[in-house]
């Protein structure tokens, strides 16, 4: 019998989930009696508890099965589809999304990448049985710099002894299993740490204790815990992969998780925008509605464009895991770097529209402040922005020399959000050194096409601008010296990496819109122009659109946003209908 | 036995017998300090009573009453510094206590002798005052307020709800804006001094406390008037002058709110700098690495800019009184916009410690972040003030073109630490005839004097001011302007901050020559660079070329700020250190 495929769980309820299915399950958020509606979400936040009815609902559809590869008896086949399902949960309640099981997925990915057959089977069984896995990398002393982690595993007999603390770990208390990161060697460098898969029930009680729960300003229902280990013995079979392989495994796993993170959390921006429009269309000031105020219209339009920009970059990012895995070492960190910052800035802009209404924990728009608090850590949780840039920067000189403006565009399916994806090959997520950049290749192609004279329309000018920026980045990155690529790289070098993420996002947007072809026949799309204008504003230097052109784009975007709101459709690239 | 007399008395008075910010800082520090107290009150959503009592014992209320009415408010710079110190400890505490200054402000402007006497007596004896402006359906849209004060007999009958209002329940008094004339008319409202104790029982009922995102313990509640009777003598100023008086009072109160931002920002900077200086990443502190250093330096530089702007603006209340409509419309949005951005950038560096409630300095960072987020929203939100500034664009354009300036007023506005002339309330005007002296009188650098790079930065600032005012000239007049007007207002705010930095550098460099942040003009060059960069982002133009010495600014400023944060020394050019013990 194939140990991998045998599962005690037999047939699971239902087919693989979709975003629509999850939306339908969660129902109308405004419905007062909905046990997972807005009122219940807020009440759970006030009590610093997980939304219990939400967890029951996700248990009932065995959401965990979405985290387990189909080959192990689960339903995971596609990162884009999983991201779409989880985004729907984030739209309703980011705490539920993060607290129910996202951390289980973050942990499990390490096992799918590098675990042996028994470890993969065990992890699958834990998840399919409805239990949780915690990812115990973090200790407060060293945070994201896990290569400096002090937590130790000392070889002892045929196994190991664990000593140290793990802190601020999601679901640590509730988890049945842990994926744990520990120092196993004394040498400086990245081969001194190893990953272990532990079953809490199998740890001797004398060897560890729980630390008190860590409370946070937002994500208040999330159970952040800690454990303190003292010479706690674990079997040799707990080791994942080879000794010293932890950093390599983690960096592979991070390509999946850093890509997913913005694709998922942008859901809460959708809800924030919806709340803002709801308020603006109904509240009356200065003789009209708030939505009549020009400042409000522009702000809503810009936040909408920001959401689309984040979605374009994130959607291509998760598709790249399947269709361009050789590049995801860079794309994942680019998406995690740029998306969350744009999202927090958009939240701040919307806050200015809501005014006092966005500051109240009661009233019709109370959900806004909870989403705002829940969003606060997205720029530093899971991977700091500095860590993301440190991942991207060393790759840029090679990409500049070997791919930008010379390499081809990625496969068409990379940018076609409706196209199916081939199975994810965890082994192809090499922690290598990418030599191709197909997303940039798509931009280069389009920039070449607009060089014909007479292309003075706004879209052509924007494409030309990003093309020119790419050209400059290529020269500057090709000149970077090795000392410009380390953790001590000068701020100017990091700035190049920041600019790259913006150009990448623009390339994603252009390519996605081009692939979406028939949806926007002929005339340029205000959404694309808006996205490119917002991204252009994140590059140093002059803008492209004139004030008149910008006003026109924003007016169209505002009307489109209102239409989406009125029609109960999502603001993201899918424009899918939602309940309510 | 330990008695009160055994405790060492805090140095409550400076050399001239005047309460100092240092003394107030000491009162709020100590083993039983603001950190734990503030955190506990926030968690429990309780009014910060202990801290509030310390502020009362210190005599902070005396600084809300002008000297002609028996108080100590003869210097708005002093009040700003005192509030900054409180905000540096606990924003909730200054919001809770400081509301009385806001509530009383209209009375000093338009109250008659009896009204100022009774208000002074109330405030000096520690009573709280609320300012009844907001209503559930009308935030800053004062003209559409629906609380009515209808003539009845020889007085008025008040009906309607004021909500959400800080101090509505705890306050013994409320300065109430109510409609006495036709709806929507600019002269349809009047201001009243309401003594809640004098109202018939049941005619003014409290509305419950509102649950808020930050300042959770503050008394933000409401008052529902149902046939409350006010005598004629309760009316402040002539009938129909209510909105005008409110707008004049807002010129002072909005300016003073900058202290909440500068204090919260400094607190965030200290927490993060301490962390960055001690947090080892691959054996070196975070603050020693270029990117974190650049972020810390930018934040410190921007806070120096906010500090400079707020100090000059506070003194302008006395020295450039006729320009306060512009000054307040600039500083009220500038300070929280920049500070919210700084706090967000610092949170990225601080990481999870910025988010924990019970760890790392009592979870101070997440509390100050939430508390501070109210500043952009209240007392005239950011969009409201920017739209107001836009109404005065033509004056700002003309003022720049004509280099209009009140030079003696400016000299007094930048003479920090000296007693300013008395504030002449009658000189407050709804529009600033002269535009904005601080920006308009920015000198051009002469020769090679000054630290390397400073002249280049000042020239770049001039260039930006010209661009901004040039664009302002093209904005068509509109009661509710389009977005470009708001962007230009935001850019002009940064011009003001930059100009304030230059003026203060010129006026004060000599007396601070030995201080680390002042050497080689470190703070002013860094501030100008940070402010101009922020401006070029808003305007969508290329940043100025780096000035000589710019590449050394980040490391130098970060090192000094980190060092200062570790030892409780000042982290801004005009700031004070921290009393020991947190």
Walk me through what this model shows:
The complex is a heterodimer of chains A (580) and B (582). By secondary structure, chain A is α+β, with helices and mostly antiparallel strands. Chain A has helices at residues 19-26, 38-46, 52-60, 79-92, 94-114, 117-128, 246-282, 294-323, 328-354, 367-375, 385-392, 396-402, 438-449, 458-478, 491-515, 526-536, 547-566; strands spanning 133-136, 152-156, 159-170, 177-183, 193-199, 208-214, 224-234, 239-240, 284-285, 288-289. Chain A is built from 17 helices and 10 strands. In chain A, strand 2 and strand 3 (159-170) form a beta hairpin. Residues 1-12 of chain A have low confidence and may be disordered. Chain B contains 19 helices and 10 strands. Chain B has helices spanning 21-28, 34-44, 49-58, 76-89, 91-110, 113-124, 242-256, 258-278, 290-319, 324-350, 360-372, 382-391, 393-401, 407-413, 437-440, 454-472, 483-508, 522-539, 553-567, and strands at residues 129-132, 148-152, 155-166, 173-179, 189-195, 204-207, 220-231, 235-236, 280-281, 284-285. A 4-stranded mixed beta sheet of chain B has the order 1-4-5-8. In chain B, a hairpin with a 2-residue loop joins strand 2 and strand 3. Chains A and B meet through strand 9, helix 8, helix 9, helix 10 and helix 11 of A and strand 9, helix 9, helix 10, helix 11 and helix 12 of B.
């Amino acid at each position: 019998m194939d140990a991998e495929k045998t599962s005690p769980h037999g047939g699971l309820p239902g087919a693989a989930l979709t975003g629509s299915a999850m939306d339908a399950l969660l129902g109308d958020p405004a419905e007062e009696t909905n046990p997972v509606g807005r009122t219940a979400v807020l009440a759970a936040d006030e009590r610093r508890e997980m939304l219990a009815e939400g967890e029951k609902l996700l248990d009932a559809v065995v959401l965990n099965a979405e985290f387990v590869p189909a080959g192990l008896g689960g339903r995971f086949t596609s990162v884009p589809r999983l991201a779409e399902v989880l985004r729907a949960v984030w739209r309703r309640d980011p705490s539920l999304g993060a607290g129910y099981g996202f951390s289980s997925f973050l942990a499990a990915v390490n096992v799918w990448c590098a675990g042996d057959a028994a470890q993969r089977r065990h992890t699958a069984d834990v998840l399919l049985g409805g239990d949780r896995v915690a990812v115990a990398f973090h200790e407060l002393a060293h945070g994201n710099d896990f290569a400096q982690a002090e937590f130790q595993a000392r070889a002892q007999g045929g196994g190991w002894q664990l000593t140290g603390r793990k802190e601020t770990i999601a679901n640590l208390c509730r988890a049945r299993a842990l994926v744990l990161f520990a120092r196993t060697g004394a040498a400086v460098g990245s081969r001194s740490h190893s990953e272990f898969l532990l079953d809490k029930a199998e740890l001797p009680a004398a060897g560890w204790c729980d630390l008190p729960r860590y409370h946070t300003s937002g994500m208040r229902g999330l159970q952040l815990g800690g454990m303190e280990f003292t010479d706690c013995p674990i079997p040799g079979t707990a080791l994942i992969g080879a000794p010293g392989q932890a950093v390599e495994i983690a960096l592979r796993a991070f390509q999946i998780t850093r890509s997913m993170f913005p694709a998922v959390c942008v859901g809460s921006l959708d809800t924030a925008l919806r709340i803002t429009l709801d308020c603006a269309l109904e509240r009356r000031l200065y003789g009209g509605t708030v939505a009549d105020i020009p400042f409000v219209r522009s702000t809503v339009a810009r936040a909408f464009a920001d959401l689309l920009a984040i979605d374009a970059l994130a959607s291509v990012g998760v598709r790249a895991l399947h269709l361009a895995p050789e590049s995801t070492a860079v794309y994942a960190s680019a998406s995690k770097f740029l998306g969350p910052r744009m999202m927090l800035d958009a939240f701040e802009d919307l806050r200015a529209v809501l005014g006092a209404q966005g500051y109240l924990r009661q009233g019709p728009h109370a959900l806004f402040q909870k989403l705002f608090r829940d969003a606060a850590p997205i720029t530093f949780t899971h991977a700091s922005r500095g860590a993301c840039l440190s991942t991207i920067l060393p790759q840029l000189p090679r990409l500049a020399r070997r791919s930008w403006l010379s390499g081809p565009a990625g496969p068409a399916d990379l940018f076609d959000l409706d196209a199916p994806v081939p199975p994810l090959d965890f082994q192809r997520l090499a922690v290598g050194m990418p030599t191709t950049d197909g997303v940039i290749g798509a931009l280069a192609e389009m920039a070449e096409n607009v060089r014909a004279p007479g292309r003075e329309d706004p879209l052509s000018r924007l494409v030309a601008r990003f093309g020119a920026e790419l050209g400059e980045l290529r020269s500057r990155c090709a000149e970077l010296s090795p000392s410009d690529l380390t953790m001590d790289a000068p701020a100017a070098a990091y700035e190049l990496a920041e600019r790259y993420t913006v150009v990448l996002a623009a390339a994603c947007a252009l390519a996605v819109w081009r692939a979406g072809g028939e949806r926007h026949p002929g005339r340029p799309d205000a959404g694309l122009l808006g996205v490119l204008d917002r991204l252009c504003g994140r590059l140093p230097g002059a803008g492209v659109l004139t004030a008149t052109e910008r006003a026109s784009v924003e007016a169209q975007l505002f009307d489109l946003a209102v239409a989406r709101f009125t029609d109960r459709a999502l603001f993201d690239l899918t424009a899918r209908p939602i309940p309510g | 036995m330990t008695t009160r007399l055994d405790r060492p008395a805090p140095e409550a008075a400076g050399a001239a017998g005047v309460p100092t910010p240092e003394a107030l800082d000491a009162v709020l520090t100590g083993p039983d300090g603001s950190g734990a107290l503030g955190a506990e009150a926030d968690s429990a959503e309780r009014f910060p009573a202990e801290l509030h009592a310390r502020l009362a014992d210190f005599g902070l209320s005396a600084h809300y009453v002008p000297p002609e009415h028996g108080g100590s408010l003869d210097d708005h710079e002093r009040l700003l510094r005192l509030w900054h110190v409180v905000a540096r400890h606990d924003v909730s505490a200054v919001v809770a206590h400081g509301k009385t200054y806001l509530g009383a402000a209209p009375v000093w402007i338009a109250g008659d002798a009896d009204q100022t006497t009774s208000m002074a007596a109330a405030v000096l004896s520690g009573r709280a005052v609320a300012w009844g402006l907001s209503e559930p359906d009308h935030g800053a849209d004062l003209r559409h307020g629906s609380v009515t004060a209808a003539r009845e007999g020889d007085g008025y009958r008040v009906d309607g709800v004021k909500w959400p209002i800080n101090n509505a329940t705890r306050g013994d008094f409320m300065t109430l804006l109510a409609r006495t004339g036709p709806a929507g008319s600019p002269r349809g409202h009047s201001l009243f001094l309401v003594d809640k104790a004098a109202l018939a029982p049941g005619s003014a009922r409290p509305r419950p406390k509102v649950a808020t995102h930050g300042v959770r313990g503050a008394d933000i509640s409401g008052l529902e008037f149902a046939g409350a009777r006010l005598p004629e003598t309760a009316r402040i100023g002539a009938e129909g002058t209510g909105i005008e008086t409110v707008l004049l009072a807002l010129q002072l109160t909005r300016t003073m709110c900058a202290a909440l931002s500068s204090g919260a920002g400094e607190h965030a900077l200290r927490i993060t700098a301490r962390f960055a200086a001690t947090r080892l990443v691959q054996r070196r502190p975070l603050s020693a690495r270029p990117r974190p250093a650049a972020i810390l330096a930018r934040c410190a530089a921007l806070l120096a800019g906010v500090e400079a702007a707020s100090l000059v603006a506070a003194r302008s209340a006395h020295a450039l009184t006729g320009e306060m409509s512009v000054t307040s419309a600039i500083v009220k949005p500038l300070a929280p916009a920049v500070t919210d951005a700084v706090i967000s950038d610092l949170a990225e560096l601080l990481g999870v410690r910025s988010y924990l409630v019970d760890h790392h300095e009592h979870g101070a960072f997440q509390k100050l972040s939430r508390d501070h987020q109210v500043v952009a929203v209240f007392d005239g939100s950011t969009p409201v003030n920017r739209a107001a500034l836009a109404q005065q664009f033509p004056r700002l354009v003309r003022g720049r073109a004509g280099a209009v300036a009140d030079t003696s007023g400016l000299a007094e506005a930048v003479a920090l630490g000296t007693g300013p002339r008395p504030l002449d309330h009658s000189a407050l005007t709804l529009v600033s005839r002269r535009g904005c002296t601080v920006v308009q009188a920015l000198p051009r650098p002469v020769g090679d004097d000054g630290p390397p790079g400073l002249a280049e930065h000042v020239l770049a600032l001039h260039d930006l001011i010209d661009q901004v005012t040039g664009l302002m000239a093209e904005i068509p007049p509109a009661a509710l302007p389009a977005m470009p007007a708001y962007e230009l207002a935001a850019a002009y705010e940064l011009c003001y901050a930059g100009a304030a930095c230059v003026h203060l550098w010129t006026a004060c460099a000599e007396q601070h020559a030995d201080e680390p942040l002042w050497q080689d003009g470190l703070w002013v060059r860094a501030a100008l660079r940070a402010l101009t960069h922020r401006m070029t982002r808003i305007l969508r133009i290329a940043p100025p070329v780096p000035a000589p010495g710019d590449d050394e600014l980040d490391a130098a400023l970060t090192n000094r700020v980190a060092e200062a944060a570790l030892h409780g020394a000042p982290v801004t050019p005009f700031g004070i250190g921290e009393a020991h013990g947190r």
